[in-house]
Amino acid sequence: MITQTYRVKGMTCGHCVNSVSSEVGALPGVDNVQVDLTSGTVTVASTAALDEQAVRDAVDEAGYELVSA
Question: What pTM was estimated for this model as a whole?
Answer without folding.
Answer: 0.91
